Amino acid sequence: MDKRKLSLIAISVSLLSGQSLAAGFQLNSQSATGIGRAFSGDAVIADNASVLSRNPAAMAMFDQKALSLGLTYADVDVTIKDVAYTTPFAAENLGGENDAADNKVIPNIYYIHPINDSFAVGVGAFSNFGTGTDISSLNNTGASMTPVDLLGQTEIVTSNFNASVSYRINQQFSIGAGVDLIYGEGKLKRQGEIVGEPVNSGQDTLVDVEADGWAIGGILGATYEINDKNRLGMSYRVSPTFKADGTVELNGAKFEEIHIPLPNIFQIAGYHELSPSWAVHYTAQHTSWGDFDHITVSGNYPDTTLKSYQWKNSWLFSVGGTYSINQNWTARAGYMHDKGVVDEISSLSIPDSDRNWYTAGASYHLNKNSSIDFGLAFVRGEDVEVREMSGIPGIGEVVGHTRSDAIYYSMQYSHMF
Description:
The protein is mainly beta. The chain has two helices and 21 strands.
């Protein structure tokens, strides 16, 4: 395989991995209550079974069986504009795409079962990543040459199936551990005409990927209950190198597997009840995006590093409050600042930036054991200039501007029995 073809493969596969992993598309959607408070304190509040997604040790605070069923609708707004570059023939401007992302419906379910005063077990199913973009329309603008290796269609969905156990050491300390079974599937298409290359009906297919796979990770957690009004929690999620199998055709070369390293996630959280009506809570979370160093493929050719990154580790911080209006209604609100991860290497298909979350939510208590919970979040990114090198001969650097916003609508039913 010549070096030019290998370069095209490297760029194309990087689009698949980036689209599924970029912080701009990382889904914070595990519960309606969490969305309503910007996930502040979510590793220790333990007001319903969804705490299982953040900290298995918090199951020790349940003395009844708990079930939560939820659904989140993510209305994602990705804008790409002013995509331009200079060829040996002319300066080209491809324009942009105002609706580059697909919206998502994201379900979740959690169940916690106390065994005795010391042990509890739980299971959950939720998603950490999932999105889709399509900027292939920028290949059809009539330009003499287009960076077809950078523009196309991407679809990614992941599901996390968790089983956890907690152990109460004493009145203050509890610990927990869980296993994550992660399933992911994705489709990727990069197709267009390359000037000077043999074509079939005016189209070269550089990338045609349909792959899925399973990976195993885990989570460790701990809680410290200072008293019945104040508590702290922390957790550390260990993520695997994800392997996807399937049809992986890249510019005529066929591989069988793509290997993608996932970042680890550490978080600490606090909850403090100020009065019978008011409580405040907060979270600080560190994600080791620096571990996402390179993508490899294997199969019919020797294992090959396709793309190296210079991403940076990232922090997010959130703070929120909960107010008990009366015996039927509880209100909550929160704010989150989520740092972007892209550093020196950027991409049109990764519209990443710092993001601010403005959230609100409420619970209607049907009775003392059941509630319907609502959450709403407005996520606002920043306008970012992207500079990316195309592997198509004669194009070179492509410049564009991206922005990624979203609105999350979430509802769940929670029950203690």
